Every structure is written in structure tokens, then in C-alpha cells.
Amino acid sequence: MIEIFQVEPTCEKQEEIREFLMSYWINDVWNVDDAFFDELRPEKWPARIKKIDFSSFPTSIKIEAKFMLVTRLQNSEIRLTTVISGYASPMKKLGDFLSIYYPKLLSIVDIPYDKALIQWRTHLIELGMKLNEDGKFAKGQFYTVFNKLYSFFVNFYDTRDETEKDIWDLRRIPGARITEDKSCHTLNFTQIPIPFLDLAKRYLKFRTTTISYSPASRDVMALRLFLVFLNKRYPAWKDLRYLTRNDMEDYLSWYRGYTEGWIDHHNKYLAHLGMFLDYIQKAQYSEAPKLPSVLLLFREDMPKLPRRTKNDIRYIPEGVIQQLEDHLEHLNPSEYIPIVILLRASGWRISDILNLKYNTCLDRTNQ
């Protein structure tokens, strides 16, 4: 029997929130003109809105809403302008909604998520929020603020090891490769069918030590598409031992139609699925197919990529590289200098250079 983990706020975590929200942050209204924000506020405030008011929230959720924004601000995930002008109106509407429908809620993670999400959508429509042709809100930040608050605290209150969770923050996984020039760091396993969840996590736990975020996220998407298809076909399956070529042919037929128009990603997700099947057999996973992976997914199953032209190739122009070399001593901060030198000497991509791991192999000199 599969047990579903239920996140619950602990006394320790709630105390951590209260201690964190000392001084100015405890106020229900944050005004960007207050002296407290002098070091955070840009010289010229770019927005009309200068205040964010949390007083519409039920008391317990009010504290959580403040904590989420302060944490993301201090972790440089968002800027002060986003906190004040971007969240002021969505937070006000979310607070009103929760006070009407869930006034006694002790934590956002206690909310009946699926039911509340439908109620939240209906509430916004009743307020006159416009939908576009795809049925999505034209001002998406109003709808997504609920999800952001909920997912933040599901992760915060979940004290398990990061790789046991259904959403991973790669920054919290020892040995995981982090691409410093990217803002995305999370892998989401929530749409992987539960019978295959441990298999997917075990594979990605290994992969995150050898690849960066982008290919890891493609791994997750490739597995989600394949395992959801397989779960619908064989609801009782908990492994891939009896996977056949016939199953793969049916999947490929569905996949070509589902991913039509995806161009580059169509090929990549299929390639990542092939790597997954090949690896779990080599690593002798107990869930691996009995049939060799080369007999499940053929080379000719992989669509041929169109030949790239010069205009398709992304690179740093020679003129820009030359300017960097000519003005190395003026680079600020000076930590950028080794990056430029390595970029020129190796010919690698900037993301590969930023992923290099070193301890004491580089010495600073006066040259």
C-alpha cells in the first residue's frame, strides 16, 4: 500500500517564522517610503503603488504571507519593487478570499487544495477578472499567487530529505549541479504517477550530480509523458519489467501527435526517455525492463534534427570577446576576470564554465 505524505506545520517551524518576522516585518502595512527600506529601495521608484497591506488575511495566514515574501526578498528571488507593486493587489484579493471562505484556517497547507483552487478561480471571475482565449487569466499573477503561497509552505513545512519530496530545490541537494546564470532550480514530480514515483526520483537523484538544471528538467518531462501514458494503459503496473516493443510503438504513435509543433523539444524528450531506459538497465534497477533497451527504442525512432544554419547557432560575438579582453582590468567585480579568461581559452559555453567545481586549484596573483 502506497502512503501519501501529509505536510503539517510544526511548532518549531512556526516559531522560526515568528522569530524571523521581528522588527518592521511584523507590521500589516509595508510602505516603501519608510526609512526601513532605504537600503533596498531603488533611487527612483518605478511604480505607482508604494504600499502592500496584509490586513485582509486571517491572522495565521497573514504571518505566512509575510514570511514568504520576506524570505524570497532576502534570498534575492524577487526585488522590492515586485514585493510591493507586483503583490499588493493580488495579496489583497487573496486575503479577502481566505477571510470569506476559510476564516478559521490555521495554515495555508491545511486548505483543501483542489476545492479551494476552483473557488479561487470562481471568486476572481466574479470580481471581473478577464480570461483570454485559452481560458487563462489575462493578469496571471492574481491567479498564481494562491499556488505560490501554498507550494512555498508545503516545501517549508516538509522536513524530509530534499530527494524524498515531490518538488526538489536543487540548491538543497548536496552535489547537484547548479547553473548560476539561471533562476530556475526546482524539479516537480507531482505529475509522475505514484507507482513510478520512487523510480523517477532515484534516477533523477543520480542525474542531478552529472547534469545541470535544463537537461534534468527535460528528464522529468520525458518521464512524466511516458509514465502517465503507461499508467493509463496498465494501472496495476509498479515497474517496467514487462515493457514490450509493442508498448513503445503505441507510445510513439501517441507521442508524435501529442508533441506536434514542439519542434526541438519533441526530439529531446524522446532522447531523454531513451537514456532513462538504457541507464536503469545498466544500473540493474529492479524495475528495469527485461527486454534490452535497444529492442524497445530503436535508433530510427529518433526523428532527424534539421541542419542548423549559422543564424541558428548561439555564441558570443568575437567583437564582444575582444572588448572583454581589452578591458579585463576594469571588470567589476573582479571575480568575473577568471570567467572571461576561461571562456576565451576553452571555447566552452558560459553555463559550463559557471558549473566548474574547484576548491584551492586557483591562486590569485598580482598580475
Helix coverage percent? 40-55%
- What is the number of independent domains? 3
Radius of gyration: 25 Å
What is the CA-CA span between the terminal residues? Answer: 65 Å
Order of helices and strands: HEEHHHHEEHHHHHHH
Major sheet: 2 strands, antiparallel
Summing up helix and strand content along with how strands pair, one would put the structural category as mainly alpha
Number of strands: 4
The overall pLDDT average reads 86
Question: What is the 3D shape?
Answer: globular
The quaternary organization reads as single chain
Low-confidence stretches: none
Count of helices?
12
Strand content: under 5%
Major sheet: order of its strands? 1-2
